[in-house]
């Protein structure tokens, strides 16, 4: 795989514009910049230039570390004894939208999160951060008991007719597909989630649906090819598509075999 060499802010802005990012739009970006030879700040600025002053950039700033049942937490504690884990669990800092990093979400997400003027939603597990005039509107009402469903920014992005950019990543990380899970009938199974809020080691529980991204890559592979525009960057594909049609088609696929069960 080849593709054009794009490294500067201006080159990146042109690249995204030619892909189909348009001024005034709302864009959610999942990205992997490792090996791409670009700076996260230049990618952020190139995206903002392509979106223009009326456009809004959104990134996932998830914090799976703030959960003792997540893969991220289990990886952190895998080598600990039971007593060591108890001490660690009691010291886990609470989620704070203003300061909590998102180390598993990539350098672009962290770059956007820490940009002055960035807005971040308040969910302790599945927050999103954004820059632009609609960021507060889209991210401000995140129900702390709803990861990515009807009372989350994901539904707001759907209503806003937003686009998703998969920047050198695949459909397996396309979090918009989770909205399709919430819309399955019958409703998906539910489970308890745990997170730290309010103070170190202050674990609290809430219920939400069982999220399952295990089939997202296969769902994306079955979507019609005319759904997205595609280019290459540093040997990997870059895809741009509309949230609404992708979520609707993902839901049709899920309803055919999940039957509301995850």
Write the layout of secondary structure elements.
Layout: H1 9-19, E1 26-31, H2 40-51, E2 56-60, H3 71-77, H4 82-91, H5 107-113, E3 119-120, E4 128-131, H6 135-139, H7 153-159, E5 163-167, H8 177-182, E6 190-196, E7 203-209, H9 216-222, E8 228-233, E9 236-242, H10 243-257
Parallel strand pairs: 1-2, 1-5
Antiparallel strand pairs: 2-4, 3-4, 5-9, 6-7, 8-9
Give the gist of this structure.
This protein has 262 residues and is of the alpha+beta class. The protein has helices at residues 9-19, 40-51, 71-77, 82-91, 107-113, 135-139, 153-159, 177-182, 216-222, 243-257, and strands at 26-31, 56-60, 119-120, 128-131, 163-167, 190-196, 203-209, 228-233, 236-242. The strands form 2 sheets. A 7-stranded mixed sheet has the order 3-4-2-1-5-9-8. It has a two-stranded antiparallel sheet with strand order 6-7.
Report on this model:
It comes from Streptomyces siamensis. Belongs to the antibiotic N-acetyltransferase family. Keywords: Acyltransferase, Transferase. With 262 residues, the chain is α+β, with helices and mostly antiparallel strands. The protein has one domain (9-257). It contains ten helices and nine strands. Strands 3-4-2-1-5-9-8 form a seven-stranded mixed beta sheet. β6 (190-196) and β7 form a beta hairpin. α1 (9-19) packs across α2 (40-51) and α2 packs across α5 (107-113).
Which key features would you list for this structure?
262 residues; alpha+beta; two-stranded antiparallel ribbon; 10 helices; 33% helix; 19% strand
